[in-house]
Amino acid sequence: MEPYLTEITQQAAAFWTFITPKNSPMDDPEVLVRIVVQVFLLIGSALFSSSETALFSLSRIDLQNLLKQKHPLATTINNLLEQPRRLIISILCGNELLNIAAAANMTIILVKLYGQEDAGWITLLLMVPLLLVFGEVTPKTIAVSNPVVVSTRIIVPVIRIWIKLVAPLRWVVWKISDRVTTLLVGKEKSSDNILHIDEFRTLVDDVVKNGELGSSEKLMIFNLLEAGATEVIEIMIPRTQIPFVNITWDKQQLKQFICQNKMHHFPVYKKDRDNFIGFIHAADVAGIFLDPGLQANDFNIKSLLYDPIVIPPTKKVNEMLDFFKTHEIKSAIVLNEFGGVEGLVTLEQVLQFVFGEICPKDTFPDVNHDPRTNIYDVPGDMKLIHIEDLTHFVIKDNRMTTIGGVVFRKLDRLPKVGDQVQLEDLLMTVLAMDGHRISRVQLAKGVKMKEPPAPAKGTANYEREQI
What we know:
Layout: H1 2-19, H2 29-57, H3 60-68, H4 74-82, H5 84-114, H6 116-145, H7 147-165, H8 167-185, H9 197-209, H10 215-227, E1 237-238, E2 245-246, H11 251-260, E3 265-270, E4 272-281, H12 282-289, E5 310-311, H13 320-327, E6 331-335, E7 341-346, H14 347-355, E8 368-370, E9 375-379, H15 384-391, H16 403-411, E10 420-423, E11 426-434, E12 437-445, H17 460-466
Parallel strand pairs: 2-3, 5-6
Antiparallel strand pairs: 1-7, 3-4, 6-7, 8-9, 9-12, 10-11, 11-12
């Protein structure tokens, strides 16, 4: 044990001897002056590092607020950001010059304190953490957290002067690098040609707060933005609920079916529902029914057929308005990649997504709500977006679009009445089944499941537990 302690003591003594200056800084006034200069060089490096982060972190909303407040530097900041290449080259020139000067100055200090042989290693050990912590990480973290305050109170008053002073050096650097940057990113672009979605949402919120837009207009704008990211599979009528018409039906069967299913357009199939052959319009059928001269034997659904219009499930909701207008239709069948019918999308559904539900939230006919306990009893095929609108319970699922589908996927087996699924603080309970389909689900917010059900044998979750 003693040899190890002796070796450690010797190494510690050697290290202490290595870092102890051979000459005292108090004996050389030049060293003291250079230490003070070194502090200012690090402050300058931090200033330029934070200026890059702070200025380019300013959003369009921040600039507009500064202009509304008539801030004296608002116009200056806007002018700086209008020429991003000039700004970034000026900042980098200042930052690199100060970093080089700081490294050179520190080398001279250490040469005087430690001698020329050891100064190189000590400079490396000192300058890397100093520049990293005080010249890069710390100032940039502060700048990105408070870009407006840092820009207006610290950065811009200095940068606008520096840009004028560094103009000759910037011109040289610009000319050398201009060809390379032009080949890589193209010609210089103005910063005002892009408006991000989040910035636009914030802008709409500000307009609503000022009373220039109502809440209904705000909802419509946000729905339009959401429509660009929503696929039709999320709003379509699923295959199991589509009122299909069989091409072989007679006049009486068709009349009875249309009276039971109040829709404007009905998809028609032949032999199998995946063999979709077109649409019939309820208005055309009504005209047939009102024709007293038409005999039952003369009736043929084929004479009422319109061309079959199909779309993929990945088509966006915002594309459907133009699609319906171009094809002069109001309904389309959603086909999956295997040619099977996935669902039905109508113009009414698209309009409801954009403009909101026609009926108020409290008039959903199949929803029961106990306001005392905030427990909802909803249909299993109710869309997640409708549940969020009605209950304000946010349920996110990338694979399923209905509450029944979410419960089924979480269970990972055939559901049965009484099954429960816990999703964060939301407890979902299966109340009723229609064959293999979940027909009713209870939603309880802030309720925890007492004992999670064990995974059924043969399911993926069961196999994982066994492993």
